[in-house]
Design brief:
It comes from Mesorhizobium marinum. The protein is mostly beta strands. It has a single domain, classed as Jelly Rolls. Helix content is about 0%, strand content about 60%. The strands form two sheets. It has a five-stranded antiparallel sheet, with no helix packed on it. Strands 3-8-5-6 form a four-stranded antiparallel sheet, with no helix packed on it. The two termini are about 20 Å apart.
């Protein structure tokens, strides 16, 4: 990914990849396609802008409210919060 968010791999093995994403205000992941099913675990409340080929939406994130997505999702994720934002992504291989 080529965005401005800071990605730190916490675990990578034959079954999972666990990555921490840290965003300053306005930081983004960069356009990407998910090659695996994945879960996102918000580490704090915040707001994200999700940019897809079909347009933009916003997601209000709540601490610990984990969600699941299937392989193939293509998007850019932008921190639309007033302050920093952090989530953990767990990719299932």
């Amino acid at each position: 990914m080529t965005g401005t968010a800071k990605a730190k791999t916490l675990i990578e093995n034959e079954r999972v990849i666990v990555t921490e994403y840290r965003f300053g205000p306005g930081d983004n992941t960069g356009w990407h396609r998910h090659g695996h099913d994945y879960l996102v675990v918000p580490m704090m409340d915040g707001r994200l802008k999700i940019v897809t080929k079909d347009g933009e939406t916003h997601a209000d994130m709540k601490t610990g409210a984990t969600y699941f997505r299937r392989e193939g999702v293509e998007h850019d994720v932008v921190n639309a919060s007033d302050g920093d934002y952090v989530f953990i992504e767990i990719e299932l291989k």
